[in-house]
Amino acid sequence: SEALPGYPIFTVNHPTCTARIALNGAHVMEWTPTGHSPVLYLSPDAVLEPGKPIRGGIPVCWPWFNAHPTDEAKPMHGFARNRPWTLIEASESDSGVKMAFVLCSDAATRELWPHEFEAHLTVLLGSTLEVSLQTINKGSSEFSIAEALHTYLTVGDITQVTVKGLAETPYLDTVGARAMRHQTGDITFDQEVDRQYVSLATVTVEDPALRRSLTIEKSGSATTVVWNPWIEKSKRLADLPDEAYPHFLCVEAANAGDATVTVAPGEAHVIQTTIRL
Ligand code: TA6
Questions:
Q1: Mind telling me which residue stretches traverse the membrane in this protein (predicted)?
Q2: How far apart are CA 179 and CA 189, in angstroms?
Q3: Which site from 34, 75, 121, 261 is most exposed, i.e. has the minimal number of CB atoms within 10 Å?
């Protein structure tokens, strides 16, 4: 792991890919399949400090998405991305590297969310990237979660990108006054986009500037969030350069909005995203 005192970062060097994963938030920071340029976007201004979310890679937004439903003082996107997880497995095969992390309820999490849980993040790093988040209810009453694997993808030029797979899909537009709208045709970008699509579908990101297409498959996810902050919002984000927005797009496997997931005692729920070139 990298020399950042008190902030372990695991570096993966495998014939199929290189990657970096921070213990803070079990956060996949970077993934670069061999022979390709980096697929995940990591802000050069990302803050790498315990307890802080990392701008880029795949933030684990859990057990709520965006602001806490009733208490604005609680952290945006839940607490999983701000907590130190525990590495419980790291293994290698010809196809890549598997790493598994766990976050268990404790006094600190109970302050924020009064439920007993285990959260398991499993990452398969190879020529494709597969990230699974399993929620286990270890308590005696059911609980509901909202969540997202908040993937930041590197793109060459957002103004040339086309997102396919969400045509004719309803979505919650959260830019300005929140409103339900209907997607006609492919998604293109000429302003801030922050949309929660009600969709189980596989999404393709066509990026002519980098001459590549990325395919984002999902399971256990009823929502696909598509976000680019554009100029004004980028200027309000201290950990993102103002001129960075043309070079990334978030396509997130999520359960957000009305698609919260209820987990009964002793039961488990899994959300997964797979990224392939
Ligand atoms: O995924 C889209 C979104 O909800 C945006 O509204 C924006 O807030 C983004 O997440 C980033 O949130 P963060 O707390 O990481 O700055």
A1: none
A2: 18
A3: 34
